[in-house]
Specification:
The chain has 368 residues and is of the alpha+beta class. It folds into two domains: 135 residues, Creatine Amidinohydrolase, Chain A, domain 1; 225 residues, Alpha-Beta Complex (Creatine Amidinohydrolase). It is built from nine helices and 19 strands. The strands form six sheets. Strands 4-3-2-1-5-6 form a six-stranded mixed β-sheet, covered by helices on one side. A four-stranded mixed β-sheet has the order 7-8-11-19. Strands 14-17-18 form a three-stranded antiparallel β-sheet, with helices on one face. A hairpin with a 5-residue loop joins strand 2 and strand 3. The protein starts with a helix and ends with a strand. This is Xaa-Pro dipeptidase. Pfam families: Creatinase_N (PF01321), Peptidase_M24 (PF00557).
Length: 368
């Protein structure tokens, strides 16, 4: 019996009239099989045709990862000699009878390396964009996935709380970020963090994707901290903005506006609402306060095995929200050369509304 996720994949493939998928190492392969491989110079390819046993082509050194599989899978191992790989792919794929078929791939994930090896063998087959199928499957989280996400969020929140105990005026952004990374690992995060934490103080906070640097926390700063943890592959992605020492009235005001926008986005969500409507719920708060031009990015993005995945919460996206969808709500205001504010939570659409997976205080907490 193949995993339920592979069964659901087959149903989607039949609906889309695609006979098979070809996936390389990445989140979709992990989602479908439970196997985790990283992108490297040695290709890993999963081929699955409707009604057939999945086929995995992989290097010999990864064989031990299959020891505990509880479902049937065909495997083909190869050595470290790249000259032999085309023949190995040819022999492995022959059993699937994929000539002149429609094969779904992920254009944003499949590299030229794997594509060339597949195309050499399947010259008569049509490769088509199958990313919509995978996104439709992965965007709806089941109870087990939600539990893993909530655990990742809990780890992230405890790690930040421990980091704040060490924070003070005068330390550098880099020192804060280093302590945060250590606390994430100490509190249980997997070592492959979803991303390098963003720690941006004062004018650096006006750059949404700033990197921690040598700037030292100074009284009057706003401090943007965007961080995450990973648990059993699932990622948390959160942001809070803090005050350093004495913070001026304008900084307090824009923080309050972003907090209101964040709340509007979190409470607006429900099934059958569009992603664009969530974006509008947050954006309208900031626009009405006169800072619309300073909210320069989308409201959020899906979160799961990847930190950024479907659904994407932006204007124009008419995709309907469904129970089990998880995404971020992260409005911000960025004043060039002055400061920035972002408050980000991870949420899930329920049968009747929207529930936040994160609970860390959104108030303006001060570091002294």
């Amino acid at each position: 019996m193949i995993p339920a996720k592979l069964q659901r994949l087959e149903e989607k493939l039949q609906t889309w009239r695609i006979e098979a998928v070809a996936l390389n190492a990445g989140a979709s392969l992990t989602y479908l099989t439970g196997l985790d491989f990283h992108l490297m110079e040695r290709p890993v390819v999963l081929l699955h045709r409707v009604g057939s046993t999945p086929l995995l082509i992989l290097p010999e050194l990864e064989a031990a990862k299959l020891d505990h599989l509880d479902y049937p899978i065909d495997t083909c191992f190869y050595s470290d000699n790249p000259d032999q790989w085309p023949q190995v792919f040819k022999q492995a794929i022959a059993s699937l009878h994929l000539l002149e078929t429609q094969i779904g791939i992920e254009p944003g994930q499949l590299r030229l390396l794997e594509y060339h090896l597949l195309r050499t063998v399947l010259s008569e087959s049509a490769f088509t964009d199958g990313s919509g199928i995978l996104a439709a499957l992965r965007s709806i989280k089941d109870a087990e996935e939600l539990a893993l996400l909530e655990k990742a969020v809990a780890i992230a929140e405890r790690a930040l709380q421990a980091t704040l105990l060490q924070a003070r005026v005068g330390i550098s952004e880099y020192e804060f970020a280093s302590e945060l990374v250590m606390q994430l690992l100490r509190h249980g995060s997997e070592t492959n963090l979803p991303f390098t934490p963003i720690v941006a103080s004062g004018p650096n906070g006006a750059t949404p994707h700033a990197r921690p640097g040598e700037r030292r926390l100074t009284s009057g700063d706003l401090l943007v901290v965007d961080w995450g943890a990973r648990w059993h592959g699932y990622a948390a992605d959160l942001t809070r903005t803090f005050g350093v020492g004495h913070v001026a009235q304008q900084e307090q005001e824009i923080h309050a506006i972003v907090r209101q926008a964040n709340r509007a986005g979190r409470t607006a969500g429900r099934p059958e609402l569009t992603c664009a409507m969530i974006d509008e719920a947050t954006r309208s708060v900031i626009k009405e306060a006169g800072y619309g031009a300073h909210f320069t990015h989308r409201t959020g993005h899906g979160i799961g095995l990847e930190c950024h995945e479907s659904p994407y919460i932006h204007a124009g996206n008419q995709q309907l929200l469904q129970p089990g969808m998880t995404f971020t709500v992260e409005p911000g205001i960025y004043l060039h050369n002055q400061n920035g504010v972002r408050i980000e939570d991870d949420v899930v659409i329920t049968e009747s509304g929207c529930r936040s997976l994160s609970s860390f205080s959104r108030e303006l907490i001060y570091i002294s």
